[in-house]
Amino acid sequence: MSAEAAPRTPWKAVIGGSIGNLVEWYDWFVYASFATYFAASFFPTGNATAQLLNTAGIFAVGFFMRPVGAWLLGRYADQRGRKEALTLSVMLMSLSALLIAVAPTYDSVGYFGALVLLVARLMQGLSVGGEYAASATYLTEAAPRGGRGFASSFQYVSMTAGQLLGLGLQIVLQRTMSAEALHSYGWRIPFVVGALGAAVVFYLRRNLLETEVFDEEARAWARPRGTMRSLMAHKKEFLLVIALTMGGTVAYYTYTTYLTKYLSNTAGLAKETATLVSFCALFLFMLFQPAAGALSDRIGRRPLLITFGVGSMLFTVPLMSALGSVGGFADALVLSLAGLLVITGYTSINAVVKAELFPTHVRALGVALPYAIANAAFGGTAEYVALWFKNAGFEPGFFWYVAGCAAVSLVVYLFMRETRDTSLAREEKTPVSV
């Protein structure tokens, strides 16, 4: 019986892969959501926007390590297995969160604290660069063909749940600690929690089963796995992943990591209100993902991607402009949710689409490396670009930038081939190209 016809306990695989992904992205996003509290701890006192620019710059640097992590851990996942790569990535994340938790401040050691912060973000970049591909590949390969969209959608369910945990903890700390205490030492608490959570998941992941698709490939083929030479035989798919990721990753980080700062700095909402808006909107966004993933199993991947592309291109500017002048919680929540609903067409299925583009022996590397390159160039810099436009006095320029990126990806969605019926175990029978 084939791997796709009878996968090994798919729900156990989904839960096992997702819970680790949850902790990974909790640690990754906690940096962004608590940046407003620890920015002054690592840089000289001065303009608040300048301090945020510095921390956003280090946030972006973490993204530029993601291609390196994607190459290293993607290659490792194709050679040693998805399970092994998942275990290694969460170990790196635990260490990086611990480093941030104990990093010294500018007042005590000058810029050395910022250096520790930078090293920790570089480690996080390595970890997340490989985690995305290992998780996407594992969830996709562990599911039956007719349920791959639904199963892989839990990658963004877990990513969003990780961010919700971070935001939820932030809300609790905001309501139980004074602003002075949060700026002084309270911001360290979520990083301690993240380090401990990652250590627990490291133990749990060691008990996961490898996917049968990978085992079948390892037994049946003697060809090299996870090499750049093998990957370059799929140049079209490599470039396709970069292009289809471009618009989605910019839009995603705009409505998630940057949204709280935007509502606070531009709309003038209290930090506590802005955080609550993000929490509620992201919770509902998380619930959209499995429904959209299941829909893609019925109608295909392209209709959802095209819907995202059109919606993001047309509605980003009016939505973000309206969000910049909201007067309270309800209006901000409705508008934020509208933006997140649009990008669900991308987030719910982007992992499975990329996994379906590549054969098993380079699937993890093929998903990881071009995705990480696109994230470094567009996702990791989104917040920095937004703050740069704000600092330059032309904040609406960022909205047009996001819409433009979506327009480029839309062209790709319109001309790419449908991937829903691709066979993972016998990829040579169903080639996928632009």
UniProtKB/TrEMBL annotation:
Name listed for the protein in its UniProt record: Putative proline/betaine transporter
Compartments where found: Cell membrane
Record's bilayer topology term: Multi-pass membrane protein
Annotated GO CC locations: plasma membrane
GO MF annotation list: symporter activity
Domain Major facilitator superfamily (MFS) profile: 13-421
Keywords: Cell membrane, Membrane, Symport, Transmembrane, Transmembrane helix, Transport
Pfam family, one: MFS_1
Entry similarity comment: Belongs to the major facilitator superfamily. Metabolite:H+ Symporter (MHS) family (TC 2.A.1.6) family.
Keyword Disulfide bond on entry: no
Record-annotated membrane-spanning stretches: 52-73, 85-103, 109-133, 154-173, 185-204, 238-255, 275-292, 304-326, 332-353, 365-386, 398-416
Role description: May be a proton symporter involved in the uptake of osmolytes such as proline and glycine betaine.
Coiled-coil parts of chain: none
